[in-house]
Amino acid sequence: MPSPQEKVDVVLIGGGIMSATLGAMLTELQPDWDIRVYEKLDYVATESSDPWNNAGTGHAALCELNYTPEDSNGQIDLEKASNINQQFHHSRQYWSHLVDTGVITDPTTFINPIAHVSYGRGDKGRDYIKNRYETMVRNPLFADMEYTEDADTQAEWLPLMFSGRGPGQVNGISRIKQGTDVDFGSLSSQLLSYVAAKGATVRTSHQVTDLDRSSDGWTLTVKDLLSHETHQVGAKFVFVGAGGGALPLLQKSGIPEGRGYGGFPVSGYFLRTANQDLVARHQAKVYGQAAQDAPPMSVPHLDTRVVDGQDYLMFGPYAGFSPKFLKKGRFTDLPLSVRGNNIGTMLNVAKDNTDLVTYLLGELAATKKARFEALQTFIPSVDPADWELIQAGQRVQVMKKDPKKGGVLQFGTELISSADGSLATLLGASPGASTAVPIMIELLKTCFPREFAGWEKSFKDMIPSLGRDLVDDETLLKEVSEYTSRTLQLI
Question: EC no. (predicted)?
Fold first, then answer.
């Protein structure tokens, strides 16, 4: 391989929220470092970070029922919900810091207040929502949660869903008014504009096609997709934040820490409406319960979205299966990801998840009538003419080795780094974007241990609750909640 034509300190692969967050942090912490960002598409944040490719919930575990499982004894496990909520507090504090320092001038361009609601139908669904509420409200993080099974109150909170319903229906809903809607596409674009203004180079229509070890880091082969020319770039540190495209690059890197990993792609669709009469009657994100054998990302939800200053409603997702790892990927992505070191993992996952595959293929074949019948479980009176079907982004769930089962399918994110800290990759999906800030801090701590000691005070200034438990410190919880709500214009 020829010598690199240029050398930089950091290369970030992918122009989404993860690379944007890491780039913004490093730009502030190490303004002397030379940073390069490569995005395969012609604009940044158009895959998983795009507002129409994700639910934009601002995952704070306020309404997402898969974060609060109930065991056979009726006990609600809050560990995951509590962890995610505190991580989202970290993200809010960092975003507030960006507003305070002028990096972001108008927070309403990416974050807006919207109630988060959980919804259970029938006796069983109602009892679960009530049990969940009674457990969560005792935790300071969720102390503002409300619950009702009263039909009039439900119609007041969610008129589009509950006004005019017939008598005798059994429903339970819980609500937290202090939820948010987040446009991670807008946030990513603003952060990358900031790092570019501070001297980083952001190149779109450029694809990293290969990575090789070098004496002082990595040599990357980069293809200009417009001119079709390739060149080599040397980097001391590489972050692969390419969403579904991260696994192939991790495999090409050859680091032993990446052996055994596979990817399970899940596609999907949403119904969307811009009918302002409907939008005005539903100002909330409402999450229901997943169907049996459905993946966590397929939990049905009816969301208010704010994109480019306009309100929409979005319902779904209708999950399906595609072998593509990216929305604009290739049908060969999945088969080409099979390696000798991960085929056992993937076969064991396939063996244990045949019901899931059957479910996804069934969803893919669902008729228009079936899709609207699903929507009618939320909105009894639906006019299909008000709604359009849009394709969601691809999600690639992590398949990893397991000593007992041989391989497991993991719903979440996985940070993988080389032993020397010169390369890091993020695999997986939800609640990724909402927890990008703590994930990137963990990356910096892992890959730059020597430098992190000098950065720690800066991080604590940016994120006052970092390293502290908000459940045990209600005074701090109140302070950071009020600070971020005020700074991000959420009140």
Answer: 1.1.5.4
